[in-house]
Write a structure and sequence with these properties.
The chain has 121 residues and is of the alpha+beta class. 40% of the residues lie in helices and 12% in strands. It is built from 4 helices and 3 strands; from the N terminus they run H-E-H-E-E-H-H.
Length: 121
């Protein structure tokens, strides 16, 4: 399974809040995290600043188009191949299997099992 993206959502929200504090010349108060606390709308971070309530929602930004989907698709494609080959290759040896970043690009879902089986063979 591919590594999960690093979750810096709260850090990003805090950095933006600091910029707003500097611009307003005031400090935020009444900070809360409704998503974690279950205390309101499902947003990342809420606080009051100079009489205004701010609510932030952060989503992970993809470095390239379909990055998150590609990562999930990659894991689904590669995991059965790894499982089938792990500890079943001739010994001694070191083997390297290389795939494009989006091995499913252009493939029809019904063809994927056949391609995985061909790679395993």
């Amino acid at each position: 399974m591919p590594p999960r993206p690093i979750n810096n959502e709260r850090k990003v929200c805090d950095a933006i809040a600091r910029v707003l504090e500097e611009r307003a010349g005031a400090l935020r108060c009444n900070p809360r995290c409704p998503e974690k606390d279950g205390t309101g709308p499902p947003v990342e971070y809420v606080f009051d600043l100079a009489g205004v309530t701010y609510a932030f929602e952060h989503t992970i930004i993809e470095a390239f188009d379909r990055q998150i989907h590609t990562s999930v698709d990659f894991g689904k494609f590669v995991a059965p191949i790894e499982a089938a080959l792990d500890h079943h290759m001739p010994r001694p040896g070191m083997y390297r299997l290389v795939f494009p970043i989006d091995p499913c690009a252009g493939l029809k879902p019904r063809d994927i099992p056949k391609i995985q089986e061909a790679i395993i063979a």
